[in-house]
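Blackboard transcription, Thursday session:
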Amino acid sequence: MGLRAYLVRRLLLLIPTLIGVTLLIFAVTQLFTPIQRASLYIRSEKEASPENLNRIIAKYHLNESVLVQYYYWITEVLHGNLGYSMSKHMPVSEAILSAFPASAELVIFAIPLTVILGIYLGTISAVHRDKPLDHATRFLSIAGWSLPTFWFGLILLALFYDWFPAGRLGAVARNAVFSPAFTRYTGLNILDGLLNAQPWISLDALRHIILPVITLTVVQIALIVRVMRSSMLEALGKGYITAARAKGLNQKEVINKHARRNALIPVITLAGILTAGLLTGVVITETVFSYYGLGYFAAHAAMQLDAPAVLGFALFTGIMYVFANLMVDMMYAYVDPRIRLG
Amino acid sequence: MSVRHRLSEFKAGMKPTVKELKFIITRMRKSPLSIVGIAIILFFIAIALLCPILAPPGYPSQGGDPYKMPHEGWTPTPSPPSEDHPFGTTIYQFDIYYGCIWGTRIAFYVGFLVVGISLAVGLFLGIVSGYYGGAIDEILMRFTDIIYAFPGLIFAMALVVAFGRSLTSVLIALSLVGWPTYARVMRSEVLRVKQEDYVEAAKAVGCSDLRVIVKHVLPNSIYSLLIMASLDIGGIVLTAAALSFLGLGSSIGFADWGQIINQSRDWITGAPGNALAYWYTFVIPGTFIFTFVLGWNLLGDALRDVLDPMIRRR
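(Written on the board underneath:)
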């Protein structure tokens, strides 16, 4: 099977997976009574009156069979209507879109930091197997993995609150950003500050983003270190490493040019798990740092049992995650011919 | 067949297992991290067993439930560690020391119960799916695919919102999220064992499906599942604590580590001029969560290293 045939097959697989994702969220809605379920379909606060909910039950056939309900529900979802969030006082889809750039900003910083540092530490650990350096690296990364995200964040916040405050922007910068003179090109404050030629806004945003990014990185890095270490150990035991050493290459060349390149392949598969970790990490981290993004929105909705918002967010992350996995598979097929030929 | 003969046969049969165990133990002893992990877990087992001695219950404010933290009055400001309250008190004067000690039992309870349910469900469905194959297999695998399409905590969060907030909801949600992994591993193990000659032989002499599964397939495939389960406990306790922190778990005053930290959220930034004034309300219960999870993860990491066939013998 060539690369193209593999990609086509993988893309076709996307359709049943996406249908499955919507089915599962729909199954959760079935845990509610019809009246509760009706609140998933309203579009504004005014529609929440009891008579109107009865009208919605009739309109979307909420008392009828599951299949009929799914048809009406999925039609609404495909039109971008995920219900109305009572905790945020706006439609769920709107809330998700408005919160998305803030979370993206966090992740843009956290991913490269986690990956590069993780690969570096994993390599060191493998090269010095069972030496003090290995034990130290492994202990630190396992410790990071065992840290409750919210607790680590709280400690950082308590220690550095005066230098790196909570929130997404300081009061002055927030006023500037929401003033008519400031154009929000991307919603990413750091970039927008530069585009508007107001670098002090970027600096302010950067000051607020440092602690959340550190939290996300420390908690996620163990995964990369662990896989990189075992993959590196495996590579170091291969015949081509012995051959490279026999050729007289020095240790540095053997590790950087021969072992590490091959050891990197399994790390690509981690990108999927890393995405899942970041999506959940963002929920906790943003809540701790009162950083208004997707995760903050979802966590506060959950605290107030705002079902449409939480379900909408779950559907959104499910879809994001499916696409992340698609990209991982494609990258993997490109890098490792055994996958597409096997 | 005499008993002695059976015994020697059993001994001979156990030889590879004993050898393997010996190898695991020697390899583990070389790794100081695994020793630390085991020591931590033993320490927490001791705390869990000694709860009634370390923190005797029976305060009037508990209403006879030892898993509720005792408290005096409803003053909201936490008070620092003192002779009566070695770890201080949190909001409404709940005793943090008591909560941390009895929270150990809750942590074990959450970890073992969720892993137990996931393991049981996964084991059953994995065997059925792997052994019989066909439509059941296909449906089950597609279903696990879908559950995998969600990050665990987020799907669990949606379920808890649907069930209503309580510790039971958290337990059910985590089990629902957890079983597919076990089902998958069990299925692939069964598929592997099914090909073995001894299973073919057992079938050929006319053993029933049940007998083949219980006597031949299960003992040869459950091993990796049990290891997986022991590795899972730390992560489960961590996720449960995160849900408690979000206020989706047990109710206020319950001896649950995540819940205690949730109670102290308003006090994290401290008093004016003293950012760390109320450090004890979150640093101490958090240390309990962290150490507990660390113990399991250290053990798990060492086990994984020992059992990975690609790197073990070097």
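Lecturer's comment: The radius of gyration of chain B is 24 Å.
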